[in-house]
């Protein structure tokens, strides 16, 4: 298990956007770079997706999914998640993010 933490540095996010691998799903676009000590992540949601309640729910879902599957992540990485689409079911979001974890970190 690796420690989960949030990315606080804007330069790290800019590096991820320019020089990283990309996982594209229906609901999320995930920029990631493997090889770090800890698993760090940041979440971005546009204001065009809805009011603050909807945006915060989406971010809560993503954080809880990563926390739920933290034992399946066996290597460090920096991950930047861009939420492209709001709404839908929690299970759809969970399946998409679990697919990303399974494909890239097992």
Specify the structural class: alpha/beta
**Global morphology:** globular
Q: Mean pLDDT score, rounded?
A: 89
Uncertain segments are none
Question: Describe it for me?
Answer:
It is a single chain. This protein is an alpha/beta fold and 106 residues long. It has one domain (4-105): Ribosomal Protein S5, domain 2. The chain contains three helices and five strands. Strands 1-4-5-3-2 form a five-stranded mixed beta sheet, with helices on both faces. Helix 2 (52-68) links the parallel strand 4 (39-45) and strand 5. Helix 2 packs across helix 3. The radius of gyration is 13 Å and the shape is globular. The protein starts with a strand and ends with a helix.
Question: What tags apply to this protein structure?
Answer:
alpha/beta; Ribosomal Protein S5, domain 2; 40% helix; 29% strand
Summarize the structure.
Helix content is about 40%, strand content about 30%. The protein is α/β, with parallel strands linked by helices.
Chart the SSEs and their pairings.
Layout: E1 4-6, H1 10-18, E2 21-24, E3 28-36, E4 39-45, H2 52-68, E5 76-83, H3 90-105
Parallel strand pairs: 1-4, 4-5
Antiparallel strand pairs: 2-3, 3-5
Helix pairs in contact: 2-3
């Amino acid at each position: 298990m690796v420690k989960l933490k949030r990315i606080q540095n804007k330069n790290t996010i800019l590096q991820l956007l320019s020089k990283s691998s990309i996982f594209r799903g229906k609901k999320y676009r995930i920029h990631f770079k493997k090889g770090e000590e800890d698993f760090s992540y940041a979440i971005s949601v546009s204001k065009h997706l809805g009011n603050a309640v909807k945006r915060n729910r989406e971010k809560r879902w993503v954080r809880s999914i990563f926390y739920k599957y933290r034992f399946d992540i066996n290597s460090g990485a920096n991950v930047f998640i861009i939420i492209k689409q709001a709404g839908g079911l929690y299970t759809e979001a969970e399946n998409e993010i679990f697919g990303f974890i399974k494909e890239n970190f097992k």
